[in-house]
Amino acid sequence: xxxxxxxxxxxxxxxxxxxxxxxxxxxxxxxxxxxxxxxxxxxxxxxxxxxxxxxxxxxxxxxxxxxxxxxxxxxxxxxxxxxxxxxx
Length: 88
Known about the structure:
- It is a single chain.
- The protein is mainly α and 88 residues long.
- It contains three helices and no strands.
- Helix 1 packs antiparallel against helix 2.
- The radius of gyration is 14 Å and the shape is elongated.
């Protein structure tokens, strides 16, 4: 249950952050990109939470949510150019 609540929120936050950065890089206004991907993340949250609640192994759920969140946040930092040597 805890994985469904915390992990789903973290994954949705990572998706919103990555989407906002990518949307801004593609020419959208930052406010529009944040709003669009935040709303898309809200649509994805129930699906992710239901999957997390119905999965048989809690360890696998935690791993999938942690890896997904980490990858999205790392990609957001790379795209934004905050990591040294990322090109901007």
